[in-house]
Amino acid sequence: MSELAPTCLIVIPCLNEEEHLEKLVEGLLESIDPQTTRIVIADGGSTDRTQDIAKKLAQTHAHIFYLHNPKKLQSAAINLAVKEYGVDATFLIRIDAHADYPKDYCQTLIDDAIQTKADAVVVAMRTIGLSPFQRAVAAAQNSKLGNGGSAHRRIEAKGRWVDHGHHALMRIESFRAVGGYDESFMYNEDAELDYRLTQAGYKIWLTAQTHLNYYPRSSAGKLFRQYVGYGYGRARTIMKHGIIPKPRQMLPACILPAMLLALVTPWFPWAALPLLLWLCLCLIYGIVLAKRSREPSIMLAGPAALLMHAGWSVGFWEAVLNTLWRR
Asked: What pTM was estimated for this model as a whole?
């Protein structure tokens, strides 16, 4: 298969995305070549109109396919789509249903992969909020307080080689060589796969030519549960591969121990100090972000960061304890 005319498999894992799916696919259709591209909509058992929309799109366009994903997870959806429709494809592009993409997104990824000869091309995420709470969460997630300086959370002028990023494109040959996604992971499956790719000698390129816009959770409860999952997945990756955690990963892991330590404050007054320092840091940071943006509601970025850190820490230690218990 020629690099000049690569065959591309685009996979859209989805679950209850009736509000976004049709618009997303229509946007993709404007910029792809139907002769060299297949789009697979892998549905995990939606209870809204998502399945009907996906099946209608598949009936209307010969290069769009509907795929039922019985395991429901995104990792399983992509593995199944590659198995069923990626036999002769060169590139795999993962599209998240709840995000916005530039019109030339897919072609830009392919061009970058060909130019750099990367085995995977990852992208940066710019978080955008619609409601006041979402805008506050976005401010937190776009800041070092919320992302710890993660490379794929910053829009940069130049691309560079990285060990992890938001999944966008992979060469199917490399994807298959390391076994695809680990379907036991509900969260952090992308970072776990990236670890296996880099350990096997494959290269990951963080492109500066394009990015995606991500919309955060719309409520405090959903945000907390999301970060519980993130922390759980990260801990599983660390323990599966025996990885030494980075400082930016260990700092939020300290939050739950700090909260537990504060319980003995009646006997040891100093025990509340770590928790108080964390609370003050997040709340002051939220005030600073609000002042910079001149939007008072951005002060909620401080409480949002508290939820994110606490959820991540709870999930992290839950995974550690579960793993140790099983062993």
From this structure: 0.89
